[in-house]
TrEMBL record:
One of its GO terms (biological process) is CTP salvage. InterPro entries: P-loop_NTPase, PRK/URK, Uridine_kinase-like. The gene is udk. The keyword Nucleotide-binding applies. This is Uridine kinase.
């Protein structure tokens, strides 16, 4: 693991905010809105980037892996990275390529910051990860809206076709959602209705601003 020490930041208390929710619920929409407002003052980490590589399996077979089971993600590495960032060390984050169902050759260096947002469908499912969050938010949306959004997003951005999206949804995405994602809603501090919720955005904007100014969560 690549770790580089950055002087001074180790003394700042880091606040880690988890944003969970089902696929297509609006997690990225909500997270990206906060990131756009705060810029470099807030760091965002996507659990999706920690999907396992599986370069040993041909592409044709990689598309049939159950990517909605907790074991499909290298959560150990994310836990280690968050602990390193909290200690003021930078990390080398993997970059996931959804079009190839594997990790990209590139990595991105992430510097420590006072506020870190972690986003992902399964981030409240892992107890070690869950215990690292100071604030837990769950983005809620009806299943029909989530799948419709996913169809458009996966066709436009992830190189998928309709038949593949429907088959994946029925065989793994939907059952795993009810087994592993939906139950974690009860573990959240705040459940928000839609990633485009202006009230929730204003509340979180005020909270993060307060943390950045007063150094507390
Ligand atoms: N409330 C909403 N109304 C309409 N479209 C939305 C809404 N929230 C998100 N979207 C769109 O749905 C797609 C999936 O949203 P995204 O935030 O990427 O979901 P997630 O990160 O939870 O999978 C995106 O194209 C996004 O623009
Ligand atoms: N190779 C992969 C890896 C993951 N997925 C799907 O991504 C979903 C999680 O990401 P969201 O942005 O939608 O929250 C998850 O439901 C996996 O099925 C994939 O399709 N292919």
């Amino acid at each position: 693991m690549f770790i580089r020490y950055r002087k001074g930041l180790s003394e700042l208390k880091t606040t880690i905010i988890g944003i969970a929710g089902g696929t297509g619920s609006g997690k990225s929409t909500f997270t990206n809105r906060l990131k756009a407002h705060f810029g470099d003052r807030v760091t965002v980490i996507y659990h999706d980037d920690y999907y396992r590589a599986h370069d040993e399996i041909p592409f044709e077979q990689r598309q049939y892996i159950n990517y909605d089971h907790p074991d499909s993600l290298e959560t150990d590495l994310l836990v280690a990275h968050l602990k390193a960032l909290r200690e003021g060390k930078s990390i080398e984050c993997p970059v996931y390529d959804f079009t190839r169902h594997t990790r990209s050759k590139e990595t991105k260096v992430i510097e420590p910051s006072q506020v870190i947002i972690v986003e992902g469908i399964l981030i409240f499912q892992d107890e070690r990860l869950r215990n690292l969050f100071d604030i837990k938010i769950f983005v809620e949306a009806d299943a029909d809206e989530r799948i419709l959004r996913r169809v458009l997003r996966d066709m436009n951005e992830r190189g998928r076709d309709l038949e593949n999206i429907i088959s994946q949804y029925l065989t793994t995405v939907k059952p795993m959602h009810y087994l592993y994602v939906e139950p974690t809603k009860n573990l959240a501090d705040i459940v928000i209705n839609s990633g485009l919720n202006d009230v929730a955005f204003d509340i979180m904007k005020t909270k993060i601003q307060d943390i950045l100014e007063n150094g507390e969560s």
